[in-house]
Each structure stands twice: as C-alpha cells, then as structure tokens.
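Cross-posting from the modeling subforum.

Setting up a comparison between two proteins and wanted a second pair of eyes on the formatting. Protein 1 (sequence, then structure tokens):
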Amino acid sequence: MNKMKDKITLAESKALGKVAVLMGGTSAERPVSLNSGAAVLKALLDQGIDAFGIDVGDDAAQQLSHAEFDRAFIALHGRGGEDGTMQGLLELLNKPYTGSGVLASALGMDKWRTKLVWDACQVPTPKAFVLEESSDWDAIMQALGGLAMVKPAREGSSIGMRKVHTSEGLAESYAFASQHDDLVIAEQYIEGKEFTVAILGDEALPAIQLVTTHDFYDFDAKYKANDTQYLLPCGLPDYAEAELQKMSLKAFKLVGCHGWGRVDAMQDSEGNFWLLEVNTSPGMTDHSLVPMAAQAGDLSFSALVVRILQQTL
C-alpha cells in the first residue's frame, strides 16, 4: 500500500470542499453508525477539512436537500444508508459520495442475492435456503449437514442471527430472525477459522483473523466483549492469505462494489475458503476492522478517511 502523508495540503483540503458526514440513520445499527460518524468527522476536522455531521432521520430527503455540501462521507450502516436508498438520494441531488453505487449497495445488503451472484460466478459460498413458515425444517437441516446459521438477509452487525443444531431450533430461529426482516436464510455452518478482508480502491488489505470465545462472532463479540482477539498478521501462510485476498477482491467486484468495503470469510478444516458476505459501508471507529487492516499497511485512521473521501473527486 502506498503510505499517505499524515496531513493533507491546503489545496487538497480545498479541492474536497464542504463535506457532510452522514451518520445515525434509522436502522438497528444506528448506535454503531453514530460512533463511526463521530470518528470520521473528527478525523476530517483534524485534517483541516471543512466538514460537519448530519444525524440522518426519517426526513432524510428534506435534511439533505436543505443542507449545503459538496460531497458526502457515508458513515451509515444497515438499511436506509447501506442499501442503495441513500446512494440514490445523493445521485438525485447530484452529490458525490463515498463507497459503492446504488446497485452494488442494494445487492451487497442482501446476503441471499449476493450469494446467488457468487454461486453463478463460481465463488465459493456456503449452501443456503430461504426460510418460510411452510419450510420443511427436517429436510433443510439434513441438506445443510445438521448445523446451520440463521440470518435476516438484510441486517448487519450479526443482528437476528442464531446458530442452530436441530429442526426445532431452525423453526424457532426463523421466527426470531423474521422479526428483523421478512427475508430469512439458513446457511450451512462452516466449522473453522473466521477472517475478514478490507478492500481499499483496487487493493485487498492484510486479512484479519477473528477469534471469539462466543459460539460465533455475534453482536456482543463485536461490540461488547473484551476477550475477542483480532489476529494481524492473520496466521495464514503467505500463499493462503494471498489466495483469500484475491478471492475477496474478485467477489467484491462481482457485486459491483467500488471505493472501499469489507468481505467476510470462513476457512474450513481442509483449508478451503468460503465467502459469507460483503459490507459496503463497514464500521469506522478507530477500533473497527477496516482501520485496523489499514494501520497494518502504515495508513493512519485519518489518512484512511481522507483516502476514502478523495475517491469521490
């Protein structure tokens, strides 16, 4: 990675104009987004950039159409910010914004349809089924090898997710997940190591291995636990990490993503990688995964924020 100087010039700052940092939103990930937005805003101000925050509410269209800004840094997570709707609004307002466009954002937010694209392009992703009230729970559990992960297809931060071992557990977890989304999937659970690969521009950053004492890397393991470990270097041999990075970058581009994001993956006991999902607007606090990977590549948090923003020029 090209190391970026820590402080940008006055000319570079002026070229960016007035920047609106969009944060908060109305999704289940609102608290996380407020933290991301605050960290991004501080980094921009520290760099001498003319930036301000907008706590996006139900009246987002009115808020943004009345605000004066030249470009937007999207620090929103989940629905209304990461699913193409905010991107569409900014397109209509003719305002440049960070990250992926309308189609890629909408597709990346939908775990089920992302998997369909990856399947069609021979990118390895765990087998999955859409769940319904009338699903044959026994048959699905059997097809998934007796161990499954139930997920709301369009939520983030592991919200509504459960690991299940029985047909009864599958039915109960479907009812739980459907409180968060009317599209729920059951995915084959891959026993093994969990990794995440941050993408910046056309480059995959160093992979991070996630180690948790929880049953899986759930909401509490992400945001509350003190014993979650982030291994960087990730513990893979160089050739295996390069394979994972290449696969992640390909998968990211197949969804149509650009700018920056993150791809999550598992490695099974035989060393095979399985891609789980793509995040088009990942967490951006100084403890988040993308900044952690950037730091390993000698890119400070504020330099990373500026690099992402400069992609809108």
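Protein 2 (same layout):
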Amino acid sequence: MRKIKFTEGKIYHIYNRGVEKRDIFLDDKDYFRFIHDLFEFNDEKPALNSYYEAKPRKIEKRKLLVEILVFTLMPNHFHLLLRQRQDNGIANFMHKLGGGYTMYFNQKYERTGSLFQGTFKAVLVEKDAQFLHIPDYIHLNPLDLKSPEWKNKEIKNYKEAMKFLENYRWSSFRDYIGKKNFPSVTQRKFLMKFFGGPIQYKKSTLINLRGLAS
C-alpha cells in the first residue's frame, strides 16, 4: 500500500519511469500524445474514447482533478508537480493518465503488459526549500540529454545549457519563461505569482543551475 496520503491543496512531486528503464516515448507523436493526455484526463468526467484516439472534446467547462504546475517528459521517464484539487484527485488523474497512455503505446507498438515501473512515486512538497528547488529540478532534467554533468556540479557553459532548455519542447519551462508551448496544460498562476513573472522565473532557473554547478 502507498504510504503517502494525498491531501487537497497540497503539492506533490510525481514521477515514474518505463518498466525495466525502457523508453516510453519513441517519437514526437508519443510526446504529443502524453501531453494531450495530461490535458484531457485532468477532468472529473470520464475519458471516453481518448484512451485510443486523441480527439478534441467539445469546449465545455472542466472540473480539474489536479493543478498541473510543472511537467517534464524524458525518453524513459516523466516528472510532474501537482496540487490536488479534489478528494482522490491525484490518484484518479494518474490512474487515467497511466492507463490511457499505456493503451495507446501498446496498441501503436503492438506490445502487451505494463509500460511503467510499478505505481508512480510521490513526494510531498512541504518545506520552503523543497518548493524553491523542485520546479527548477524538474525543468533542468532535460540537461541529462545535453550536459549530464550538471548533476555532478561540473557544468561549464551555462549559456548553452539555458539555450537547450529554452528549445526543449517536452516541458512546461518554455511556457514559464513566456514562450508559448503548451499553455493550456499547466496552471501557472500560482508559481508565477511566487516567482514574479517569466523574466524572474528564467533568472531563478539560471541562479539555481549555477548553484547546482558551483
């Protein structure tokens, strides 16, 4: 049984990877599909046929299960920063997301069985230090593909690292720094108010990167 109990209004770092560390995104269409699912399944209404086909639903008022504050997708794993909006919101959202994407992936690649490595992992973000660090940590993750030494505090070219992050599509970072990417997926008002806007958020990310690499 999961040790952590999700509470309405609390913020959680959610992450998971492919079973046996396998890639869960094999082409751009897979990334787009998962991002579509982040939006589509974040609603208390049933997912209908979108388990199989990414069809836009009619424009109507949605009742969010969670606030998706931050996300980053990597070839074999993902990170989400979620705030629960209603009772069992995170559990319901992640059940729909994991099940829906797995059905899509297995059908597309003619495979069967689990795609993800067990139940998703969750960490409650309750301390100010965590809150300041986690959004940047999630957004800096793509550097594993460009400059993996960043986690060992050995990165040398900050300008190139930031340029890479600004051009990485499969993340909410671009939307946070004012470059429209997937703006309808995330609820950014809370973090934007905390950090002071796109320019300040970008500066904060650079400062955090320098701190991690100093």
